[in-house]
Amino acid sequence: MKKVLIDAFSLLSPITGIGRYTYEVSERLQKLSGDRYDIFFNYGLHKKELYGVLQKQTKSEHRVKKLQLFIKKFPLLKRASRELYVFFTKFYKVEYDLYFQPNFIPNPNIKAKKVISTIHDFSFMLQPHWHKKELINYYNKNFFKLIKKADHIITGSNFTKQEIISYLQIPQESISTIYHGVNHELYKPYPQDELKKTKIKLDLPKQFLLFVGSIEPRKNLLVLLEAYDLLPKEKKEELPLILVGFKGWQNKEVMKKIEKNKEHIRYLGYLLDIELAHLYNLATIFIYPSLYEGFGLPPLEAMACGAPAIVSRVASLPEVCGDAVLYIDPANIQEIRDKILTLLNDNKSREELSQKGKSQAALFSWDKSALEHLKVLKKVLAK
Question: What's the mean pLDDT in 88-94?
């Protein structure tokens, strides 16, 4: 039986895009592996347990997360946490047949015959100001040096595949585009009686404009807030703006604007998956004005739930969303304002986008994604 190690360090933090990808693919690879692969997960410790989006934490997961919270309290430890994580793996003597790093940079201390790494985008290189200084320093020090250790690269879109070819001069036969998916058991249309409970719990208005994503610079929220502010007062009362997601970083100005306009804007923070699915269902319009994405999960999840969507025409987003959304230039405040008004005032267009969105989202599934990952694992192990 082949021994496979999957890096799962991203599952120890609140689950955002890379953590979601890691969990959904890993869970399915575990099920698909049968008696061919013995799969382990690296959290600094090597375990067979898959941590992450479980409602109840196991004892060992709880201990690991307590340690992480302790580290985050101390800036020096926090800055060194990635290095510490890599350092601890030096003490593991086990050699694996294959090491899969779903989060960019392969760990140089992992002993493995073959290495696969997923590159999600190049924002750390193209827009370093979108990220924390310690992360950029870590990437500058390690990415270009260690990515050469990968025998094969996976990425989530053809857009990013072309960036990899351009920036890393890696031959295209060594890169596989595998689209991310949607958990269709979770992100789907729900009956109104189920939605009512969440609507009451979160005190949601009858209609609202919804944004989902980390509160950080690349999501372009200041521009969204400016565009929303240009709406007539009666339209803001008709369509409050609700923001959901992990409180990222460099967001003081965003939070100030939200507080200043709290009559019409609410930030709900990080929600349970089922609450998020219900929120997508209840949204009058979903909006995603991101400046750059290697894939873009929230628009797809919103579309799967039937939310009519307004999305930036940049990077990978048109590749993923097809003709099932209304596109905007994320730098054009007036256009964003106009598209919100257009869709709000046109019930027929919203219904058409809702139907198109569900059809487009149906093309993407984590089951399909995991099967494609399994094919790449087999191919690399056979070399």
Answer: 73
Query: Over the chain, what is the mean pLDDT?
Result: 90
User: What is the spatial distance between Cα 379 and Cα 375, in angstroms, rounded to a whole number?
Assistant: 6
Structure tokens given for 72: 């985050």
Q: What's the CATH code, domain 192-361?
A: 3.40.50.2000
Distance (Å, whole) CA 49 – CA 93: 19
Measured distance CA(383)–CA(113) in Å, rounded: 10
Mean pLDDT of 115-138: 92
Provide long-range contacts, Cβ within 8 A and 24+ apart, for 343-352: 343/285, 343/308, 343/310, 344/235, 344/238, 344/239, 344/284, 344/285, 349/308, 350/284, 350/285, 350/308, 351/308
Strand-pair partners of 47: 41
Q: 2-181+365-382 and 192-361: same fold?
A: yes
Q: pLDDT digits over 140-187, tens only?
A: 999 999 999 999 999 999 999 999 999 999 999 999 999 999 999 999
pLDDT of 12 over the 90 cut: no
Q: Would you place residue 54 in the very low, low, confident or very high pLDDT band (cuts 50, 70, 90)?
A: very low
Kindly state which CATH superfamily the domain 2-181+365-382 is placed in.
Glycogen Phosphorylase B; (3.40.50.2000)
For residues 133-170, b (16+ Cβ closer than 10 Å) or e, as one string?
A: eeeeebbeebbeebbebbbbbbbbbebbbebbeeebeb
Cα distance between residue 205 and residue 331, in whole Å: 29
SS3 assignment, position 247: coil
Give residue-wise pLDDT tens across range 237-267: 999 999 999 876 667 888 889 989 989 999 9
Q: Outline where DSSP puts E strands in the chain.
A: 2-7, 37-42, 46-47, 95-101, 111-118, 152-155, 175-177, 209-212, 241-244, 265-269, 285-288, 309-312, 326-328
What does the block give as tokens for 192? 């109104």
Phi, psi of 68 (to 5 degrees): -65, -40
Could you tell me the pTM of the whole model? 0.90
- Rounded distance between C-alpha atoms, residue 282 and residue 306, angstroms: 9
C-alpha to C-alpha distance for 324 and 353, rounded to whole angstroms: 6
